[in-house]
């Protein structure tokens, strides 16, 4: 019998009702190529195979990959790949959607890797730690809002679909999960001259959340106080109170 590996963050979801809700949230159709990350025992993979044109299931665990090859042998539209998803060449695919229950410890690197492939990516519907899901969809003004919120919201339209209690997983994790659908935007919500500068400013602003913007940005932009005033932003404000539009105004002034 297969024993889930703690080192790979393996927590599996078996309830078909929940799995179908995830597929519905992802809006998977018979026209779609779907990438599933970490298919585990293949329950979601099988349901996706009935709904999608093609399923590419990327599994790092060699033992699980071997089991999936046997268990899913009858599905001609399922391609099984045994590799680290962070090294997978997403850019070589036709337009695709991602549907996955991903390990907590690697959530952020996976999201950023997928965003790199956003010219081919249509949407990602991920079952992730509830706390991270809340950070992704957070509006300005609260403790959940930060670099992750702004990075994801700049490139996608994220919506928290529903919460999955920890009791639904085997083995049971310590926290609840949530399903978030992130639809790739055709264009960002703000116009910026230099995206790299925008995200440099965002990262610097949140590097010490308790500091005012004039203090946190000074190492990056010595004359930041004057620029903040020019951008109609009070230098005494903190990063979490600024919208993406505020950050864009400041970035455009600097660049």
Name given to the CATH architecture of the largest domain: 3-Layer(aba) Sandwich
CATH uppermost class of the largest domain: Alpha Beta
Residue stretches low in confidence (pLDDT < 50, at least 5 long) are none
Major beta sheet, strand line-up:
4-3-2-5-6-9-7
| Helix content percent band | 25-40%
CATH fold name of the largest domain: Rossmann fold
| Number of distinct helices | 10
Terminal-residue CA separation: 58 Å
Which outline best applies? elongated
Radius of gyration (Å): 20 Å
| Strand proportion | 15-25%
Tally of domains: 2
The largest sheet is: 7 strands, mixed
What is the typical, i.e. mean, pLDDT?
94
Q: What's the SSE pattern? A: EHEHEHEEHEHHEEEHHHH
Q: Can you say what the CATH homologous superfamily of the largest domain is? A: Vaccinia Virus protein VP39
Q: What structural class do helix, strand and pairing data support? A: alpha/beta
Query: Based on DSSP secondary structure assignment, what is the total number of beta strands?
Result: 9
